[in-house]
UniProtKB/TrEMBL annotation:
Keyword Cytoplasm: no
Name this polypeptide is given: NnrS protein
Species of origin: Meiothermus luteus
Coiled-coil regions listed: none
Domain of life, source organism: Bacteria
Gene3D superfamilies assigned: Cytochrome c oxidase-like, subunit I domain
Keyword Phosphoprotein (UniProt): no
InterPro entries: Cyt_c_oxase-like_su1_sf (IPR036927)
Keywords carried by this UniProt record: Membrane, Transmembrane, Transmembrane helix
Lineage, opening ranks: Bacteria, Thermotogati, Deinococcota, Deinococci, Thermales
Length: 149
């Protein structure tokens, strides 16, 4: 497991804890629901679930030719978490203060997360091939090894 894959999985557990704590806080302080409900759900779905899926996919999905994608893993992680943390802080603040000036920063948080999804989709597209294409790639690799020896 690479450093970035480790961070995806560990971060997802942080977001799971955040989701559990905010959900519990709603019973103790019901007035918080209006400010934190959407970030509570977002932390659970994007923070926990999507981070776990991305981390495990980068770790477990086949890597034809043993490709390494550390840069894409890192870029995905940074974009996703920067956008998510920005939203987790700014959205409740905007709802509490009523400051519409925070909307552009929230839009940036969404764009960061969408960028992470785009990078992830590109990285996974480099790993997903048909059986026939994988056999063809193996044959090409075998021929290169024979000509180089």
């Amino acid at each position: 497991m690479s450093f970035w894959q480790f961070l995806f999985v560990r971060s997802s557990l942080f977001y799971l804890l955040y989701t559990a704590l905010t959900g519990s806080a709603f019973y103790l302080w019901p007035a918080l629901v209006g400010y934190f409900k959407t970030t509570h759900v977002h932390a659970g779905l994007v923070g926990f679930f999507l981070s776990m899926v991305m981390g495990v996919a980068y770790w477990m999905m086949p890597r034809p030719g043993q490709i390494r994608q550390e840069r894409l893993e890192g870029l995905t992680y940074v974009l996703l978490n920067a956008g998510l943390l920005l939203r987790l802080v700014l959205e409740p603040l905007m709802l509490y203060t009523g400051n519409p000036g925070l909307r552009p920063a929230l839009a940036v948080s969404g764009l960061l997360q969408a960028g992470a999804v785009a990078v992830f989709a590109y990285a996974m597209s480099q790993r997903v091939f048909t059986k026939e294409r994988l056999l063809q790639m193996a044959e090409e690799r075998k021929r290169r090894q024979q000509t180089s020896s």
